[in-house]
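[job 4417] fold queue: 2 targets
>>> target A
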Amino acid sequence: MDFNFENELSGKIALVTGGTKGTGKAIADRLSKAGATVIVTARNKPEDQPGHIHFIAADLSRPEGTQKVVEEILAEYGHLDILINNMGSSETPGGGFTVLSDHDWEATIQTNLLAPVRLDRGFLPGMVGRGEGVIIHIASIQARLPLYDSTLPYAAAKAGLVNYSKSLSNEVSPKGVRVLTVSPGWIMTSASGRMIERIADSSGGTIEQATHSVMNALGGIPFGRPAWPEEVAELVGFLASPRAAYLTGTEYVIDGGTIPTI
């Protein structure tokens, strides 16, 4: 089969949640370069948002936010071909199980698990009706390698997302819709860079020392560095493309070798 990599997504409509910064922005740019019409969501529109990418302001942690996104996209474009459930965050306090409230758990699960579920529910009927579509859930290696002292609810929500993604694939793959999971390790986004600077400042060490301290907390990264957002975006771009037409129901880990088992 012959593919034109530059325009392989021409004519496709794609949504990337959390697509205004970090890995989400890199994914949106990658899909746009492949010819897709790209929509991104976030709570607030950044000042440097590209004009060729459709932005929708929405809080996806709330049901009305996901409903707004579904209704606006279907009203303007009629359907969605590619859904990248990238949005995710962990804002709970460190300190382990005892410091976490019901609100911490509920807010984290709303953002990292139920928001993708609601968006899938909104767009899947159309995909199934056309007999084609791609849904990619961005999870995390914390689903298998949780950091219990700092991100316990996040890790639990991502584990749920991985399981849900596999179950959903079993249901809709026979109907023409591919469902996949991408689980990155540590990614060097601007937020990660700021975290490293804070660690270096508080410890009195260098940026390099702070970087290695985070890698050590993860049990080490054999590749020797975090991933760049563009590296994760390249994997997502491939999985969303016709080149990956036979791939569904699978989790793809991109972590530089962090997870110590096969």
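>>> target B
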Amino acid sequence: MTIQSPNHAATFAPQLRVAEDTAMIRAAAQVTRDLAAARPAIYWADFLGSALLGYTGLALAMTASGWLAVLAGVVAVLALYRAGLFTHEIAHLRPGAVPGFRTAWNFIIGVPLLVPSFMYENVHSIHHTRIRYGTAEDPEYLPLALMKPWTVPMFAIVAVLAPIALLLRFGILAPLSLVIPPLRRMLVARYSSLSINPEFRRRAPEGAFARHWAIWETAASLWAMTLLALVVTGVVPLREFAIALAVVSAVTVLNQVRTLVAHLWENDGEQLTVTGQYLDSVNVPPPGLLPALWAPVGLRYHALHHLLPGVPYHALGEAHRRIQAAVPADSPYHVASYPGLTGLVVRLVRGGRRP
């Protein structure tokens, strides 16, 4: 989903204009060399357990009533959110690292929730490109801290409509685009990526990735059309459909809130060093417990992830502990750690009010 980019002041955070701290980068790489391998058993157990819990909670929320339905809905949101965030791991996993995982994720989460992995693959990698991070070419960056004060709540609120937008994209626009070439070009360029930069335009897929895209877009479109038909004909009651939409909407909003605090969003289009990117990103390490819920699957270590994007999610906690012990007290590595969500949101909103 995207939001329009309002006018903002031409300011730039000085702390991001830093030279490369090669000592920090070297130390981080050296002490984490043995953590780079993904462990398939962890991926499968975590993902399948989260998906099972999420769908069980969703079924109970749709059929129960009262506090039981509410509690089941909360469980469904948190568990499906966790299962969904494995798309981030898929975007980083080396081919063959966890055999069959991408296919299973698409069958279990990507198609049912209408967010197949092609919408994130080959998009998220641009965000990690050193010369594109934080620039106008970055699909996952907006200088939110430099924008108008209303931008931050607007950024979260638009996520409420994401499930409806996805139903429209896959259930109606995708089939129509097969016979309307201009619509197809627009759909590929503007509505086929999980991005926040409204200026980002995606290129048409090629080769093996084009086949992968076609398979999962077709599957998602068939599912969306079937679901809409079942609701229109009354086979799926409107109440249950509305509950499912509310759960998926809550998942999207939660992810959007997490995105709000994944970075400081203080770069105004300049190319940054890796150290500058790290300082514009956020770790929320222990002892806080809540980040395990709102930033699961390793995303509580988002700054570290930008420093070492090849380290799998299950190893980031250990990597953080090792790097903390290896670098001196005045290392910029310590600067990117924050205590929790509230302070980060307040900082972002206050930043948005800067002249």
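[job 4417] complete. Note on B: Residues 171 and 225 are 5 Å apart (CA to CA).
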